[in-house]
Amino acid sequence: MAPAVPPLPVGARPGSGAAMSPSVAELLLQRLEREAAGPGRGLCSREAAAALGLDHQTLVGAVKSLQALGEVIEAEPRAATRWELSPEGSEVLRDGSPEVRLFRSLPVEGLPQSDAMKLPGGSVGFSKAMANKWLRLEKGAPGGPRVFRAVPEVQDTVQEALRRLHRGEAETVPERERNDLKRRKLLLEVTLKSYWIRKGSAFSTAVARQETELTPEMLATGSWRQLPFKPYNFAALGLPPPAGHLHPLLKVRSELRQIFLEMGFTEMPTQNFVESSFWNFDALFQPQQHPARDQHDTFFLQDPAEAPELPPGYAAKVKKVHSQGGYGSQGYKYEWKPEEARRNLLRTHTTAASARMLYRLAQQERFSPVKYFSIDRVFRNESLDATHLAEFHQVEGVVADRGLTLGHLMGILRQFFTKLGTGGHTDTPPPPPGAPPPPTLCCPQVSASCGSSRRITPIQSPVWRCSATTRVGGPHHGGKGG
User: Fold this and answer.
1) Which of 125, 171, 206, 432 could be a cystine partner for 121, CB 3.0 to 4.6 Å?
2) pLDDT of 251-290, one tens digit each?
């Protein structure tokens, strides 16, 4: 059995002085010792706080500290209802009710209704005084409606009821009157919370603090042998684990999507991860012998290896542009093979979806300007390292209209990156297929994995070649960013 522990003030540690809250707890224990000697006797926390000259919340803090020590005290929560005057009720208690003030301000000979409403309490008390039949209104009086007294004198029952309630004599005021005063917002029903405090089974006016942590200092000095420790509550719930957060990539995607929608863009359907080489390459004016179409850069499918069919009329136009030229292009002067265009692959860019949307747009009877965007996954047969993956996301926007220029495109880019809160400068790297040299935003990047610093090209923004748009039946000028 551990040796006896010298008492410490509640909240104090060995070798430290007592703080303010321990003295409040000691005062409460001493008062409880004096005034709750008999069985079942106790103290009301509000009465005890008033007797000790303390704020009630300060005393409640001491009660909770004592409860944490075990069975020193018992504290039963209680609630009581009392009536308090609202600010408007206090004004009525001081000056009288609006209807009585209006009645007493009205001269015997009466006043025009418009002038009566300007008297003290007129705007508020007129309807109440009329309902009480204290006033009468002559609508046919010369000069307009006129208000007169209907009785010689009145009693201010509202002020008297508030006076009794203010003195704490709520039981002398009928419930109907209290409810009427509450409806008029002159009276407030306030719930007062308190504690009924009794002695516990381990009551003492001097209580030792129970330690909650075993410190290295206690182990080094051996003082832990003489200290009481609070029992562990193994049934207590711990902090809930932080869960349910959005992935950072989803957060960025949601932010970019919102920017596009604010700029009036419509989201393109991009659910087909598997594309034919026709839409992924050929429709974008990329030659069939281009190095990017090699299996070292692209994931080709084994089953199904080929698309069942190509759009017949459009495929013929694409073949002609590749092999012979047309629509302002000289072409590549080679034999275009439809079996190569039918090869299925995992799309290497979402621009294949843009080509489909432009083709669908051209099939309409009348052309209408559009703005499309997409944010989705693409696949490249890359060698995996710290900066390259076989799967990543591409953000793409397409604007199709007549008479678009490079200035329109740069204005859209400026608006997009202003909303994104990003800066950069334009450069001119080699253009992608199907487009003249574009303005391209570059910015510095510092790798988190190896600390290297370089400039990256997060966006290319070409203007489509006429050969890439007019062969589908679209306008002669368009814009794209991806």
Assistant:
1) 125
2) 999 999 999 999 999 999 999 999 999 999 999 989 999 8
- Tokens 């303005």, located at residue: 439
**Can you name the residues that pair with 147 across neighbouring β-strands?**
111, 137
Those residues whose C-beta lies under 8 Å from the C-beta of residue 225, and which sit 6 or more positions away, are 2, 3
**Contact indicator for 300, 381 with CB cutoff of 8 Å:** no
Angle at Cα 175 formed by Cα 169 and Cα 178, nearest 5°?
70
The 10s digit of each residue's pLDDT in 435-477 is: 555 555 555 544 444 454 555 555 666 676 555 555 555 544 4
Host H or E run for residue 371? strand 370-379
Q: Which two tokens stand for residue 326?
A: 């047309």
Structure-block tokens of residue 111: 């006043």
Q: What is the pTM of this model?
A: 0.48
The packing angle between helices 175-183 and 157-166, to 10°, is 100
Helix (H, G, I), strand (E, B) or coil at 39: coil
Rounded to whole angstroms, the Cα distance separating 72 from 228 reads: 14
Q: How far apart are CA 81 and CA 188, in angstroms?
A: 10
Could you give the dihedral angle defined by the CA atoms of residues 88, 93, 98 and 100, in that order, rounded to the nearest 10 degrees?
A: 170
